[in-house]
Amino acid sequence: MMPAPIIGVVGLGTMGLGIAQVYAAAGFKVLATDAHEPARLNALARLRAALEPRVVKGAMTAAALEAIVANLHIVGSPEALGAANLIIEAILETLPAKQSLFAALEAVVSPETVLATNTSSLSVTAIAGGLKHPERVVGLHFFNPAPVMKLVELIAHPDTTKTALTLTRDVTETAGKIVIACPDRPGFIVNRCARPFYGEALALLDEGRSASDIDAAMLAAGYRIGPLSLIDLIGADINLAATESMQTAMHHPRYHVFTALKSQVAAGRLGRKSGQGFVFPDVPEAAPKDAADIALRIEATLANEAAWLLSEGGVTAEGIDKALKLGLNFPRGPFEAAALHGPAQVRMTLERLEAAAPSHLKTRYLPPSA
Ligand SMILES: NC(=O)c1ccc[n+]([C@@H]2O[C@H](COP(=O)([O-])OP(=O)(O)OC[C@H]3O[C@@H](n4cnc5c(N)ncnc54)[C@H](O)[C@@H]3O)[C@@H](O)[C@H]2O)c1
Question: How do 178-183 and 151-156 pair as beta strands?
Answer without folding.
Answer: parallel
